Amino acid sequence: MGVTDEEVRDYAIYLGVDLPYEEYLLPIAKEALLAPLPPQWVEHVSASGDVYFYNKEKDESLRKHPLEDYYRDLIKAAQAKRAFQEKEAESKGGAGSGGAAVVKDANIERADLHEEVRRKSSGVLGFENTPIHEASRVVDAGVTIEEMEEMETYLGVDLFKEPDLLIWVYRAVVAPVPEPWEEHYDAEGKPYYYFPPADRSTRKHPYDAYISQKIAACRSEGKAVSDNTHMLKVCSAN
User: Fold this and answer.
1) What residue numbers bound the domain in which 78 lies?
2) I need a surface site. Which of 157, 189, 207, 208 has the fewest CB within 10 A?
3) What is the pTM of this model?
4) Which three-class secondary structure state does DSSP give residue 130?
5) 53: in domain
6) Tens of pLDDT along 111-138?
7) Most confidently modeled of 45-54, 97-106, 143-152?
8) Total structural domains within the chain
9) From residue 38, how far is each of 28, 43, 77, 102 by CA, in Å?
10) Three-state secondary structure of 164-177
11) CA gap 101, 96 in Å, rounded
12) What angle do helix axes 68-91 and 26-34 make, rounded to 10 degrees?
C-alpha cells in the first residue's frame, strides 16, 4: 500500500512532529503509517463507519492503531537525540568533559542491570552532563535516566561516541513482551521470559537479538552523527 507525501506529513503532525522544523522525522511517520498490525489484531469498521482494532485473543478493542504509542515514543527518542546533538554542537564537545562515563561490562545480564549500574554510577561526577540526561529532558514516557543508562551498558553502547544509537537504546527499554512469550520473575525478583510452545525460558528479552542486530547494522553502515535523515531511514526500519 502506497501513501502520499501529504498523508505522511499529516500523520507526522498527528504523532507530535513539529513541521516544517522536524522533517527529519518523516521517515518514522511513514513507517508508522504503513506499520502492519501485530499478531492477533484485526481491523474493523463500526456501524457508524469508524475504524477500530480488535484483539481476538484478549477480546480487547482500540480506536487507535496498536503500535501508535510505540511510534510516538520512538519520535520522542529521536527528538531527544537531536536535542542532545544540538546542545553538544553548541558546547563544542563540552558534554563529555564533566566526568567519566559509566564503565561498560559485556558480561552483565539484563536481570542484573539495575543493581550493577547503580553500583558503577554511584559517585560518578558529571552524570548530569551525560547524553542520557539530556535525552530525558525531552523523552517523557515513563522512562527514567537510570533505565536508559543501564540499557546503554547492557547493549554495549557509548552514547558519547554513538548518539545516533539513542533510538535503539530507548526502543530496548520500552520493548513489549511479544505474544506468546510471557514475562515472569524468579525468587530473587529477577525477570525471565518463558516461551510456552517450546517450553523453554531465557533471561534475555525476546527482542534483544533483534535490537542488537539493528545496532550492528547501524554501526556497519558508518552512520555519521550529523546525517540525521539518512540515519533514521536505516536505524528505525523494522
Assistant:
1) 5-35+67-174+207-235
2) 189
3) 0.46
4) coil
5) no
6) 665 454 444 433 332 334 444 444 444 4
7) 45-54
8) 1
9) 17, 11, 22, 36
10) HHHHHHHHHHHCCC
11) 8
12) 170
